[in-house]
Amino acid sequence: MHLRRSKLEIYEAMLETLAKRPLKVDSIAYKTSMDCTMVRQYLEFLIKNGLVEEKFSGDKKFYAITERGKAVFRALSFQKRLDKITESIRAISEALEALPTLKSKENEKESENE
């Protein structure tokens, strides 16, 4: 079962797939778990924005990521890593806040000793 992906997530998945090597529509569809009609629509947008280009080998059409597309993909990947780091820091911070403070433990010990 696939969760519904946002357009940005779909574009990112397509750029990631094409960053490895140029592919035909059916290969992109297979690797991104989409149907060919949807892939063509998203490719149209990526081509229009200079992120992907068409390449021909004989009578076969391939799609390849451009330098601009690589730069956008790197930025998206970097942002995703930053988001994960932020989530980790937030979780650690919340866990630390939930722990009793050292001061209160010291105060408890002093009260017991009196």
Q: What is the mean pLDDT?
A: 88
Q: Write out the strand line-up for the largest beta sheet, numbering strands in chain order.
A: 1-2
Please report the number of helical segments: 5
Helix/strand class: mainly alpha
Number of strands: 2
Give the overall shape, derived from the CA principal axes.
rod-shaped
CATH topology: Arc Repressor Mutant, subunit A
Question: Beta-sheet strand percentage?
Answer: 5-15%
Question: Are there runs of 5+ residues with pLDDT below 50, and where?
Answer: none
What does this structure look like?
- With 114 residues, this protein is mainly alpha-helical.
- It has one domain (1-114): Winged helix-like DNA-binding domain superfamily/Winged helix DNA-binding domain (Arc Repressor Mutant, subunit A, Orthogonal Bundle).
- It has helices spanning 7-20, 25-32, 36-48, 67-98, 102-113; strands at 52-57, 60-65.
- Strand 1 and strand 2 (60-65) form a beta hairpin.
- Helix 1 (7-20) crosses helix 4 (67-98).
- The chain is rod-shaped.
Keywords:
single chain; mainly alpha; Arc Repressor Mutant, subunit A; 5 helices; rod-shaped
Task: Give a topology summary.
Blueprint: H1 7-20, H2 25-32, H3 36-48, E1 52-57, E2 60-65, H4 67-98, H5 102-113
Antiparallel strand pairs: 1-2
Helix pairs in contact: 1-4, 2-3
Would you summarize the structure shown here?
By secondary structure, this protein is mostly helical. It has helices spanning 7-20, 25-32, 36-48, 67-98, 102-113; strands at residues 52-57, 60-65. The protein is rod-shaped and about 90 Å long.
